[in-house]
Specification:
alpha/beta; single chain; 14 helices
């Protein structure tokens, strides 16, 4: 019979292929090892398209994890510094193997041992050693060269969440040659407001601005990055321009909660590095109606399939301007939650012919009434939706019946208040 090391090597040789994983799963089941069932369940979940069947698989997986996960990850936790609260550490599984680890910079000396015990680990998430901001003054966050380890070459996803590290952290990441295989990069390195009082450092050193954005964008070490997440920093429009003209070719850009101005974003995004952009997230940044209209027809966004405008203070005027100007032929998913659309904004969405190719719409928490709900439920422009998420607490049960009986949304999975609406 094939030995376990050989089965594992086959998985390492073809990490994107389920077949060797499932062969290994069968072997584990023969040994009465529940890891085999985990591999089978997670491979099925990853391949399943139907939400209902995915939920059933997930329930079975959760039961298995509740019974066994603590024992499975105990050898990994045993390697990590005990002086750091264990809640700072986290591991996530994908298709039966640990592929993600959230650790702290203090764990880097044992990275080789972690990789030996979790050889498919490819996503590294670095977080501070402290859990809360209490009365104790916090040290200025630094990476201190921990990304210079050759082992970093093993990772394709790198997340650095060191609030207060500011532009210095961005420069450290940009200078890390072993990061050259990273395709997905996330950097959250800013603090402001009340959090500033915990640091004995000038406030301007505690935020990631256009200076840090320029360092990341111009780094030859990060040229392979395709998915960039810079949520909750203080990047300006100049920083957006640096990103749009960087050495990379981005498919995903997350600029959420950066306090960008309400005007000028569409122009700042117009750069060669974003010509192939597929996903744009600008949630939490206010947009003036005129700017919403410019984004809705921006040529640089012609290939964008997913657009996240949650909490952009659009209101009815911004939504109407966006819908009137909408000319994004590739758009398939729109998130427009928490924008106080009201009935006028909801009706604008329902009447928007530019959304006719949309397959997913998330528009909850928008203070929409019966008029907007009725317009959405009967809109011919939304007939291709596969998924619709709405959450309006004031809607009465009749609205559930209206959506459940909608002929135009007959092929749509509709979620009201987090629950799937049954078809009539």
């Amino acid at each position: 019979m094939t030995a376990e090391p050989e089965l594992l090597q086959r998985i390492l040789d073809a990490p994107d292929d389920d077949a060797p994983r499932l062969v290994y799963a069968d072997w584990l089941i023969e040994q009465n090892d529940p890891r085999g069932e985990l591999i089978q369940l997670q491979c099925r979940h990853a391949a399943e398209a139907d939400d209902g069947r995915k939920r059933a698989i997930k329930i079975a997986e959760n039961k298995l994890m509740k019974a066994h996960e603590a024992g499975w990850i105990a050898p990994l936790r045993a390697l990590l510094p005990a002086q750091v609260s264990l809640e700072r550490y986290a591991f996530e599984w994908a298709r039966g193997f640990i592929e993600y680890a959230r650790i702290t910079p203090a764990c880097m000396p044992v990275l080789a041992e972690l990789l030996a015990r979790a050889p498919l680990l490819r996503s590294l998430d670095l977080r501070p050693d402290v859990t809360t901001m209490d009365a104790t003054r916090l040290a200025f966050p630094k990476l201190d060269g921990c990304l210079e380890s050759p082992l970093i070459e093993r990772f394709t996803t790198l997340v650095v969440g060191l609030p207060g590290g500011g532009n210095l952290v961005a420069h450290e990441i940009a200078a890390a040659k072993p990061a050259r295989n990273v395709t997905r990069l996330g950097v959250m390195a800013s603090v402001w407001g009340d959090q500033l009082r915990f640091f004995d450092v000038e406030p301007e050193r505690l935020v990631l601005t256009e200076v840090g954005a320029r360092a990341l964008a111009q780094s030859t070490n990060l040229a392979q990055v395709r998915h960039l997440h810079l949520d909750s920093n203080r990047i300006t429009l100049d920083g957006v321009r640096e990103i749009a003209n960087g050495r990379w070719q981005l498919e995903t850009l997350d600029l959420g909660h950066n306090a960008l101005p309400t005007e000028g974003l569409a122009d700042a995004l117009d750069g060669p590095a974003l010509a192939g952009l597929r996903v744009l997230r600008i949630a939490g940044n206010g947009l003036a109606p005129a700017e919403a209209a410019r984004l809705a027809s921006a040529k640089v966004l012609a290939n964008v399939r997913e657009l996240d405008l949650e909490s952009c203070a659009l209101g009815a005027p911004g939504t109407e301007a966006f819908c009137k100007a909408l000319a994004l032929p590739a758009l398939r998913r729109l998130r427009i939650e928490r924008n106080s659309l009201g009935d006028a904004g909801g009706k604008a969405i329902a009447g928007c012919a530019g959304l006719a190719a949309l397959t997913a719409l998330e528009a909850g928490h928008n203070r929409m009434g019966v008029k907007a709900g009725t317009a959405i439920a009967t809109s011919p422009h939304l007939a291709r939706l596969e998924r619709l998420l709405l959450n309006e607490p004031k809607w009465k049960p009749e609205m559930t019946a209206l959506f459940a009986g909608s002929k135009t949304l007959a092929n749509t999975r509709i979620y009201l208040k987090g629950r799937l609406v049954g078809r009539l």
